[in-house]
ROK family protein
Amino acid sequence: MSNNKNYILACDIGGTHITSAIVVEDTWEILSNTIKRISFNSQENAKSIFQYWADNIQNCLNEFNQEIKQIGIAMPGPFDYENGIALMKGQNKYDSIYKLNTTEGILSGLKDKHIEIRYINDAAAFLQGEVFASKRNNEDRILGITLGTGLGSAVWSNNAKAFDADLWRSTYKNTIFEEYLVTRWFVNRFLALSGSKEKGFKEIAQNHNNTEEFEQLLAEYRTHLKDFLHFFSGEHVSKKFIIGGNIAKAWELIDKDNYFGEFEISIGQYEEKAAIIGAASLFQ
């Protein structure tokens, strides 16, 4: 490969996985042969979590076999993105790394201890990558939502970097929006409705599709999600949305009878690749 190009290692870290890949800066191309993905339990101890991440990144570096000096990481919040400090607590993920220095934890497991690491909110990275990859960067304003183990929200405006809208903890009903829109809501609510305990939304859909309890579950979720779309669009004055995350993969079940027709909604086409491109753009 030509050495006059700049290559960045970028990662997408979620509640249960990390995906790393090398990105070409000028074209935002992901080198497919360098993509490395692993799943893990985010409720393990801090040493194990940092080791999972470092091993995945090192495997990606080994595959590329050229010097990399920059790593961009898309990370769920709450997180101190400027200083690399994890602030997630009570979300069924990453409690063990609360207030720990993530950069130090990752670098301790890498051969090169001098790589620069920067962080971006995962929803902002997803939205940035989707806008770049789908060439929508001439539009005025697009809002992004990620639906998975957490609720992510981001705003992209014409020719500016996407930023974290930080709406996950906005007041809703007797608590916050995130408690009604993520995987644990599906698991807990379906258990209450049916008495059946499933691991996640995917398993609920596979094992209980067409049941009365499943239809009620979806009906309630649609209401919560529409309430959030109204709230988000009111805060940031746009009805254009790009929605991603594992829950969005079942959009054909969620958007029954064009329930969300008043909004201009696109489902993310690039999945983890969008977040990887967005994370690489930290060094643009």
Summary: The two ends are 21 Å apart (CA to CA). The first strand starts at residue 7 and ends at 13.
